[in-house]
């Protein structure tokens, strides 16, 4: 398949954009990465996702696929014979992966994002407490899903690993801002080990932003009044 | 199918989220035990099966618990493979999922918010809701149902939520949200849905539901 057949509209700092990039890497699908400029939206983006005008958008032979987790499933369905399956084969295990991915987006990430916007110390403490509670749920989910293997998806990275792992760089930026280890080996040992394995995976390394670069970017988009 | 499967569904008679699961189970011909929940007084079963969210619907299949309506619908489709609910083609499948998300996140948000406002504040929300329904209108062009010739995933999600839930609330408020003139495809689709036995069997009784939605709108307004 020619790489011009597959394009991805996105931005380097977006964890949502990371998701399809990791999936395409896992499937060894070459693609053209169309980087959006921060602060403006290209004509192509507006045309491809007129309702939400959001990245990522996958263009496969000019057909647009939107919503990061939906794009990952599309990639898995379309290039099913290439590389490992991104979802487990058992329907119940697939349901668990989808359930936890929805939890991550609807609850866990919403809390993570709120830290960098949080005002006083009290608010920040509350956010951290909520994140740590969420991590405890995810620790258990990891033990249940992985069944002793290194990833939520088993031997190889999959849908749920990608759904959570894409936030690890932003999590580290938040930990720096909080001067507090939110993902703590003492409290969530399995999840912590998973995070290390995830970040070292060859499909992930090329698209995971460096923490320092991301922290600089965060300062730009979340300007904070000096404490 | 043919096996001795134990299927239970925890739901609420007025909830589109559990109604859509019933539609799917009926399409697949799966028998199930239905357990009505009371949100004011949640059963210990619900709290045990769904400790984090404490919400319906909950599907229990041979002792395994599945929650979140979209997740349940996909589980049903993958477990009982006949009479498919989701499109077979990956691109069509992705479109169905994106529009289902649009219904349950965007349309639900502005739709229910529109119930909260008095006539003055409502216009903007009504317009926003109509803009979103245009996406569904476009998708229905040239089709009987979202699923094509037969009902499927998006028919269950959008059907349970819009014509047989939100529209009843708007009717109760005297708002004509989705006119035949502006939304001919949508209205044609609703007429066709009413011809489908499994849909008709799985929607809340009309009059009782309108009263219920009116009460809900009053509660939202006075909150």
Automatic annotation (TrEMBL), chain A:
Keywords: Cytoplasm, Detoxification, Transferase. It catalyses: RX + glutathione = an S-substituted glutathione + a halide anion + H(+). Residues 4-83 form the GST N-terminal domain. One of its GO terms (molecular function) is glutathione transferase activity. One of its GO terms (biological process) is glutathione metabolic process. Pfam families: GST_C, GST_N. It is found in: Cytoplasm, Cytosol. This is glutathione transferase. The lineage of its organism: Eukaryota, Viridiplantae, Streptophyta, Embryophyta, Tracheophyta.
TrEMBL record, chain B:
Residues 89-223 form the GST C-terminal domain. The keyword Transferase applies. It is an enzyme of class 2 (transferase). One of its GO terms (biological process) is toxin catabolic process. One of its GO terms (molecular function) is glutathione transferase activity. Keywords: Cytoplasm, Detoxification, Transferase. CDD domains: GST_C_Tau (cd03185), GST_N_Tau (cd03058). Its main location: cytoplasm. The keyword Cytoplasm applies. Its EC number is 2.5.1.18. GO terms for cellular component: cytosol. PANTHER family: GLUTATHIONE S-TRANSFERASE U5-RELATED, GLUTATHIONE S-TRANSFERASE, GST, SUPERFAMILY, GST DOMAIN CONTAINING. Is involved in the conjugation of reduced glutathione to a wide number of exogenous and endogenous hydrophobic electrophiles. This is Glutathione S-transferase.
């Amino acid at each position: 398949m020619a790489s011009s057949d597959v394009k991805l509209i996105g931005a380097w700092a977006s964890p949502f954009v990371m998701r399809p990039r990791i999936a395409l890497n896992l499937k060894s699908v070459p693609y053209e990465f169309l980087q959006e400029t921060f602060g403006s939206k290209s004509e192509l983006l507006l045309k491809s996702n007129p309702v939400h005008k959001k990245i990522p958008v996958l263009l496969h032979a000019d057909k647009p696929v939107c919503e990061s987790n939906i794009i990952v499933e599309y990639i898995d369905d379309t290039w099913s014979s290439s590389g490992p399956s991104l979802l487990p084969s058992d329907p119940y295990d697939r349901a668990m992966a989808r359930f936890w991915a929805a939890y991550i987006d609807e609850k866990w990430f919403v809390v993570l994002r709120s830290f960098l916007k949080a005002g006083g110390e009290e608010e920040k403490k509350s956010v951290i407490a909520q994140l740590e509670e969420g991590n405890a749920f995810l620790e258990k989910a990891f033990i249940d899903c992985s069944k002793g293997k290194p990833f939520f998806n088993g031997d190889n990275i999959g849908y749920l690993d990608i759904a959570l792992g894409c936030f690890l760089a932003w999590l580290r930026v938040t930990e720096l801002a909080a001067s507090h280890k939110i993902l703590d080996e003492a409290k969530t040992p399995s999840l912590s080990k998973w995070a290390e394995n995830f970040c070292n995976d060859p499909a992930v390394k090329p698209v995971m932003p460096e923490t320092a670069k991301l922290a600089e970017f965060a300062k730009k988009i979340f300007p904070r009044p000096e404490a | 199918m043919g096996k001795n499967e134990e299927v239970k569904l925890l739901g609420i008679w007025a909830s589109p989220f559990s109604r859509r699961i019933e539609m799917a189970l009926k399409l697949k011909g799966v028998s199930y035990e239905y357990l009505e929940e009371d949100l004011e007084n949640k059963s210990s079963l619900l709290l045990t099966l769904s400790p984090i969210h404490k919400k319906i619907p909950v599907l229990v299949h041979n002792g395994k618990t599945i929650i979140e309506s979209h997740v349940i619908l996909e589980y049903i489709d993958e477990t009982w493979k006949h009479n498919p609910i989701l499109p077979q083609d990956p691109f069509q499948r992705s479109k169905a999922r994106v529009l289902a998300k649009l219904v349950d996140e965007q349309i639900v948000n502005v739709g229910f918010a529109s119930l909260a406002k008095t006539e003055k504040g409502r216009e903007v929300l009504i317009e926003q809701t109509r803009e979103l329904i245009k996406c569904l209108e476009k998708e229905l062009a040239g089709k009987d149902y979202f699923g094509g010739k037969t009902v499927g995933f998006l028919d269950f999600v959008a059907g349970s939520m819009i014509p047989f839930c939100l529209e009843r609330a708007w009717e109760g408020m005297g708002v004509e949200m989705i006119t035949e003139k502006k939304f001919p495809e949508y209205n044609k689709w609703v007429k066709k849905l009413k011809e489908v036995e499994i849909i008709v069997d799985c929607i809340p009784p009309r009059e009782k539901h309108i009263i219920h939605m009116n009460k809900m709108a009053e509660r939202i307004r006075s909150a």
